[in-house]
């Protein structure tokens, strides 16, 4: 098997450019699916198609009014499902690392479960726990597809020296904490959007996530760290600024739309964009976390960079 | 081997769940009416009447324009701009679509047969017509789709069963009823998010919805003390207590303002 103790793959785990590009395509399509799902919620279109898995008893209902959003979401979801099946099969046939193949299967199971949750939300008329679970699993599934793109990429497979992080807490641990906090914040956002909670917990979550992102980004942009960490760290900061602005816009648009007889365009834009940038934040943080685990050593375990390099070199 | 097993397992699981969950638009069957002891009926010789008007006290309310561009068929149904019927002000300063009814406690001991005539609710011009309706418990509500476009009709009650059914163009009328009292049940079309209507369901026939004159009349009441309630979609409810004697007619007016209501 092409694995070494400590999670190191040997050089026999070759970069498969086609597979990597396909994993990127799947992740990109999943991001579009997230936006399509956000448009369903923002336009209050979740029940515009009362049946499932068919839509008005057919595969292609009249695309009018909010049916466009709900059925469009189903079409994109079907495409992502097919892409995920193809990716899992491709990984199963061509990927030498067993844990990556298993991750492909996990993605397949996740997308199947996600489809079922989506169906249940329709059939049981948007029960909040199911709707929130559907929204949360969407974020996890996006992270899974992004992770597969990372694991199949040349940057992950290439053997490069590892560097030591001497900070406390260890940067990898800090990134993990930030990623978990961002996921919790996205779940709180989903709960607020589906009217299960007020805005208070989501605002507190935003505060915690902001502190963690700024801290993580500052640590990960240290000059001695490689560009593959500094770049996502900078991206995290930029996305955070955009997300705070979009969150404020979404809240103001929600207040302004209280008396409106239908969702306003500004409300739809801000809420959908807020969800999309939230997903990008989570995925960026997840990528940074993975790269930390791949490229960083704990100072306590490996006191010097040279010894670390020796350990990492086969 | 493991890959094949997992793929097979996932496929089987999905098929089982798909088959198990796959229900189309299951008809929400009217629930059987709760058992109700037989009570006395109203003596028409002594029946009283309560009538009045529902006034709006603050000039011209702000009207929200509806954007129907999401469905070209809806746009074609109208000549000019369409406004929300949330606050419908008549020319004489009264309000249309206010549900006025008698609170039930004073009528305990009486029983009222369920009307055989259904209440008709139409979907016309991508709006509900009328905008507010009332029905007695278990009274049939006949829902029509006069539009050449697809609607779905989705009541969101608290005390009755929620359902969601599609109505394509030329669909047969849909007949439903609500077995429990509930004021008001919001009903919406998720295809056209501006489409909303409300159904007031009470266990007796003493209710009405104000029309183009903004007046109401509740007749056939047994003499007694009553609480009359007026519900308006945006402004909420206001109550007044009234005592009517045998064959008496009392006048009760209601007033609403943007900040709430005044009796």
Can you offer a commentary on this structure?
The complex is a heterodimer of chains A (314) and B (263). Chain A has 314 residues and is mainly alpha-helical. Chain A contains 10 helices and 4 strands, in the order ββαααααβααααβα. In chain A, the strands form 2 sheets. A two-stranded antiparallel sheet of chain A has the order 1-2. A two-stranded parallel ribbon of chain A has the order 3-4. With 263 residues, chain B is mostly beta strands. Helix content of chain B is 10%, strand content 39%. Chain B is built from 2 helices and 22 strands. Chain B has helices at residues 2-21, 72-76, and strands at 48-56, 65-66, 82-83, 88-89, 95-96, 99-102, 119-124, 127-129, 132-136, 141-145, 151-155, 165-167, 174-176, 182-188, 196-202, 207-209, 215-221, 224-232, 236-244, 249-251, 254-257, 260-262. Classes of the chains: A mainly alpha (314), B mainly beta (263). The interface between A and B is large, with 40 and 40 residues.
Write the layout of secondary structure elements.
The complex is a heterodimer of chains A (314) and B (263).
Chain A (H helix, E strand, L loop, with lengths): L2 E2 L3 E2 L7 H26 L24 H28 L3 H26 L4 H24 L2 H4 L5 E3 L5 H23 L6 H21 L6 H30 L8 H31 E3 L6 H8 L2
Parallel strand pairs in A: 3-4
Antiparallel strand pairs in A: 1-2
Chain B lengths: L1 H20 L26 E9 L8 E2 L5 H5 L5 E2 L4 E2 L5 E2 L2 E4 L16 E6 L2 E3 L2 E5 L4 E5 L5 E5 L9 E3 L6 E3 L5 E7 L7 E7 L4 E3 L5 E7 L2 E9 L3 E9 L4 E3 L2 E4 L2 E3 L1
Parallel strand pairs in B: 1-20, 1-21, 7-10, 9-15
Antiparallel strand pairs in B: 1-17, 2-3, 4-5, 6-16, 6-18, 7-8, 10-13, 11-12, 11-14, 14-15, 18-19, 21-22
């Amino acid at each position: 098997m092409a694995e070494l103790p400590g999670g190191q793959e040997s050089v026999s785990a070759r970069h498969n450019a086609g597979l990597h590009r396909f994993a990127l395509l799947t992740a990109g399509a999943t991001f579009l699916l997230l936006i399509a799902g956000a448009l369903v919620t923002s336009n209050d279109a979740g029940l515009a198609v009362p049946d499932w898995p068919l839509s008005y008893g057919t595969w292609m209902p009249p695309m009018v009014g909010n049916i466009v959003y709900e059925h469009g979401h189903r079409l994109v979801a079907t495409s992502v499902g097919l892409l995920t099946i193809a990716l899992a099969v491709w990984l199963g046939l061509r990927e030498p690392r067993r844990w990556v193949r298993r991750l492909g299967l996990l993605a397949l199971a996740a997308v199947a479960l996600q489809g079922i949750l989506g169906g249940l939300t329709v059939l049981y008329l948007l029960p909040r726990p199911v709707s929130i679970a559907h929204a949360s699993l969407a974020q996890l599934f996006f992270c899974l597809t992004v992770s597969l793109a990372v694991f199949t990429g040349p940057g992950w497979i290439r053997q490069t020296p590892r560097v030591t992080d001497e900070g406390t807490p260890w940067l990898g641990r800090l990134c993990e904490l930030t990623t978990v906090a961002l996921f919790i914040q996205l779940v709180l956002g989903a709960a607020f959007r589906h009217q299960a909670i007020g805005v208070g917990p989501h605002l507190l979550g935003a505060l915690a996530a902001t502190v963690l992102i700024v801290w993580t980004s500052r640590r990960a942009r240290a000059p001695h760290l490689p560009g593959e960490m500094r770049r996502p760290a900078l991206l995290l900061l930029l996305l955070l600024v955009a997300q705070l602005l979009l969150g404020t816009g979404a809240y103001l648009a929600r207040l302004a739309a209280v008396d409106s007889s239908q969702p306003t365009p500004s409300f739809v834009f801000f809420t959908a964009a807020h969800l999309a940038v939230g997903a990008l934040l989570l995925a960026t943080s997840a990528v940074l976390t993975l790269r930390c685990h791949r490229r960083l050593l704990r100072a306590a375990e490996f006191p010097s960079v040279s010894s670390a390099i020796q350990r990492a070199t086969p | 081997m493991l890959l094949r097993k997992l793929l097979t397992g996932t496929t089987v699981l999905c098929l089982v769940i798909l088959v198990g969950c796959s229900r189309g638009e299951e008809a929400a069957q009217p629930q059987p009416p709760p058992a109700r002891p037989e009570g006395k009926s109203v003596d028409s010789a002594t029946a009283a009447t309560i009538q009045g008007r529902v006034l709006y006290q603050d000039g011209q309310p702000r009207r929200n324009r509806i954007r129907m561009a999401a469905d070209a068929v809806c746009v074609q149904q109208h000549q000019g701009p369409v406004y929300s019927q949330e606050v419908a002000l008549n020319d004489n300063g009264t309000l249309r679509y206010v549900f006025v009814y008698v609170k039930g406690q004073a009528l305990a001991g009486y029983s009222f047969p369920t009307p055989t005539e259904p209440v008709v609710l139409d979907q016309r011009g991508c709006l509900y017509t009328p905008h507010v309706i009332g029905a007695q418990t278990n009274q049939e509500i006949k829902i029509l789709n006069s539009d050449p476009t697809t609607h779905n009709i989705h009541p969101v009650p608290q005390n009755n069963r929620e359902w969601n059914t599609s109505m394509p163009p030329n669909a047969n009328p849909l007949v439903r009823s609500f077995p429990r009292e509930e004021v008001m049940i919001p009903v919406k079309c998720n295809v056209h998010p501006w489409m909303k209507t409300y159904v007031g369901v009470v266990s007796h026939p003493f209710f009405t919805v104000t029309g183009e004159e903004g007046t109401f009349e509740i007749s056939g009441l047994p003499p007694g003390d009553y609480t009359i309630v007026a519900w308006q979609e945006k402004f909420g409810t206001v109550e007044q207590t009234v005592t009517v004697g045998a064959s008496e007619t009392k006048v009760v007016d209601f007033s609403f303002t943007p900040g709430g209501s005044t009796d």
